[in-house]
Amino acid sequence: MRVLFVTTPTKAPGHHRVPLAWALRAAGHEVCLADRPNLVDDITRTGLTAVPIGEVLEADENIAASERLREGAGIAADVPDPEDLMRIEETRPEKLTYDFMHGVLTVMTTTVFRTFSPPSTIAELVDFARDWRPDLVLWDPLVFAGAVAARACGAAHARLLYGLDMVALMRGRYLEAMGRRPPEWREDPLEEWLAPALERYGCAFGEDVVTGQWTIDPVPPSQQLPTGIRYVPMRHVPYNGPSVVPKWLREPPERRRVCLSLSLPHPEVTGGDRVPVDALLEALDGLDVEVVAPSTPLLRSATRELPGNVRLVDSVPLNELLPSCSAIIHQSDVWTLHTAFAHGIPQLVLPGELWDIPMRAAQVHDAGIGLAVPDVEHATAAELRGMLLRVLEEPSFARNAARLQAELMGTPAPSDTVPRLERLTAEHRRRTG
Hints:
The protein is of the alpha/beta class. The protein has 18 helices and 13 strands.
């Protein structure tokens, strides 16, 4: 069969697709990945086939849009708290009113979903899909153009998650709240946007264009959200991109090794720049550990000199580094988090503050596989040192991390998932014209 991946136009999420794409290729299927022209080189470096679709979309444009949003641009007057309207991860019952959720979905549709799937990109993707005729379209959860293109060409389609399913969680709660309102008072920002887009290609709106005919989920089953939709579990297989294992990493560490990874994408928006780097370096100074820290702008911003036990490296494949580590310090970005899960590594998390980042950090804490710093911006060196020592020295963290690793290893690998995708595709595919 032919499989078309439709991907988020940012580099960071792209690596989660590669193991499944190669598993499909290895099983004899044709695979290509559609993305913006500025992502083509990143795709082809994986050995996969790229299809440039739409115009160049730089990350800075998304950041600027988010910043304008956070300042309250275009916010409806009846929304209680305009500054919270990017909080699709909100779970507090007292906040989840119809007006609040309507505001969140309106803002997300206007500034995120439409940005990733403008009319010109949808049209170009539909043209390609009708010409190439994929059997299955796998689309990232923010790129609804994939669902529209699948509907237009009759392909089966599913979402491919890389983190927690915040869209389906908020969507389900919103539909419940909307269903309690009189019909004349019901407004649906996603349907208002997607229905006309679908009509242009002879299709009608349905919930499958929001949450897929099914959803492939790499999150460990114990951490999946209660959305009620159909999931196909698939083990997260770490992929770090082209990389080289340095000689020093092939030698066993002389003392406990800790990975320090400060690499949250778009830190200006996600709150990743709140980490008190000088306090963190002070916390590490003098500990009987070797700290390996990939160089990042945030780490380079430190005014304090690097302690002698910190090895700053230009780059290192995380998947190869973590097996030699006793713990990892990171900001709860999903790719680092899932790689740590895969290797059973206890964690100290300094979380950002947007999307599913705080929820993932809370899950690490609740599962007993690590600790989450409660107030990152104001954390002291003493607090950080004490939390890291707990993670390193209390056996329960390593035990719980190993338990979660075993759970993850018990879910199907990408190669094991392919036969199920073949069956689901045959069940849902609807050929047109």
